[in-house]
Amino acid sequence: MRFGSTFKIAFRALQRNKLRSALTALGIIIGVGAVIAMVGIGSGARAQVEAQIASLGQNVILVFSGSTTSSGIRTGWGAAGTLKVEDAEAIRREVPGVVAVSEEVPSTAQVAAGNQNWFTRVMGESSEYFDIRQWPLAEGAPFTPQDVRSANKVCVIGKTTASQIFGNDDPIGQTLRIKNVPFTVVGLLTSKGLSMQGIDQDDVVIMPYTSALKRVSGGTTLRSINVGIADGSELAAAQQQIIELLRARHNIRAGRDDDFTVRNQQEIADAQTAATDVMTGLLGAIAGVSLVVGGIGIMNIMLVSVTERTREIGTRMAVGAHGRDILTQFLIEAVSLSAVGGLLGIVLGIVASKVLSAWKQWPSLISPSSIVVAFLVSAAVGIFFGFYPARTASRLDPIDALRYE
Fold it and tell me: Structural domain boundaries of the chain?
């Protein structure tokens, strides 16, 4: 029998029971739609995390000072002032591939201007910080290396801080009091939004780290050091060199724990995206169960169809149809149901992911590859679950089939 004729017979058989065919395809529609929507939401969450990691800057290594222990209570990394300004200068001077270093002194403080005040983060940094973070200014200019050397009373502020303190007024040139010390605002940062921890990155005041040490925190040590590397392929090597340099500078003997920790951007990204990968896999697996259920529904209906059309199968075999013709016909019916269900499921999944994204403000990212994979999987489900009924039909004995009541 010609292949085209087999197609016509298969589609004619599906059209005879339109409602049953539609309900059978519904299982695949729901399954594929659920997979597309869930994987899209998971991929969107991963993309959001990666974008937040990228906001740290490109090819960045973060060095944190150690933790402290008091009365049996251990604090986290950065609590102990084990890093010194000289450590940052040594990294800048001795580690190959380093293009920028920013000594970091974080704190929080109440800032004020006129009759307005606001509690915000105050970051002491070097003038290279804005290049490391790839954080351009919307207005004004960053403070200079000379400002850092002289511990000048200048600062750059984020948009949230600017709106809370100065409202709609231009903040450039205005005086901002930080712990009753007047600082001149020389720049306004572009908006970066929320960080991975949900912190508003625009709610910040950035000043020379020397000014932070001398006029705000009153300390002499650093909490962390930001290091920019020229080439991303050199991150791991530079990280190891920084560890070896600091161990030598801090006189840490072999076998002893470091009093600092060093993390590169890729390690931070891997740690943050691991959770989203697990979530995506879990959501996809749960949605995949409905796809399997839809496949079982196809198998069930095709077995019923074989039973109902036993005499028809016997008649076709009696007039010359071969077993492979019967097998092909029923496989075409099963694959057609799953393929049409897959196409409609893809549309349903895209719409559902967009609706959920708009309703719950969840990020959603549907890639073309996921659509292609979903369609191929739906077709494969039709072949897998349709083969047994098709094989059963092709093995019917023509005489017994003709006698079937």
Answer: 3-51+273-403, 60-230
